Amino acid sequence: MVKSFRHFVILVPLVMLSACADLGQFAMQAQKIAAGTSVGATVESLPEVCKAVRENKVRAGGQYEGKFVTTKAKVTDISDLAGRYTAVLEPVGMPSIRLIALPPGKSALMSISKGQTVTVSGVISGIDDLRSSTCYIHLETARFESL
Questions:
Q1: Which positions ≥6 away from 103 have C-beta within 8 Å?
Q2: Residue 13 belongs to a domain
Q3: For residue 144, what are the contacts with CB-CB under 8 A and spacing of at least 6?
Q4: In 1-147, which ranges are continuous DSSP H helix?
Q5: What's the pLDDT tens digit per position in 6-36?
Q6: pLDDT tens-digit readout, 92-135
């Protein structure tokens, strides 16, 4: 009983602080923690990821899959592919890169629209160039934040 009370006393201030914080930023930080990523496991350059994929897909997958990405991107498509809700996005200033974002549920797609620029974040689950000039980066547990 005493242990439960101690946990309660510790958690209450944390919950109160999180309520005061910017909820979007708080959600992204929570997503990083849930994905098991740390600052060192965040991808800084999407073009770097695509360059690596063109050089060696297997090595690029091992190097980047499971890492966290956050970028500004324009929504180009929103769809339901065989029960998987997806958004396709083009990172701002990077026309040869497409992000295939899979949110945890349908509700995450309700707040975005085609043509809208958003901040998207998620964990890389796959990379491919499909032998074309476009690089495709798949994001799991994707989150969207309006700008």
A1: 85, 87, 109, 141, 142, 143, 144
A2: no
A3: 87, 101, 103, 108, 109, 111, 112, 118, 119, 120
A4: 2-20, 23-34, 46-55, 57-64
A5: 444 454 454 454 554 454 555 555 544 454 4
A6: 999 999 999 999 999 999 999 999 999 999 999 999 998 889 99
Q: Is-above-0.85 flag for pTM?
A: no
CA–CA–CA angle 37, 41, 47 (5° rounding) = 130
Domain region containing 101 = 39-146
CA-nearest of 115, 83, 119 to 102 is 83
- Domain assignment present for residue 109? The answer is yes
At 79, list the tokens.
Answer: 């769809």
Alpha-carbon distance of 92 to 130, in angstroms, equals 21
pLDDT tens, residue by residue, 54-69:
999 999 999 999 999 9
d(CA 35, CA 99): 18
- Structure-token pair, residue 85: 């809700």
Cα–Cα distance, 18 to 27 (Å, whole number)? 10
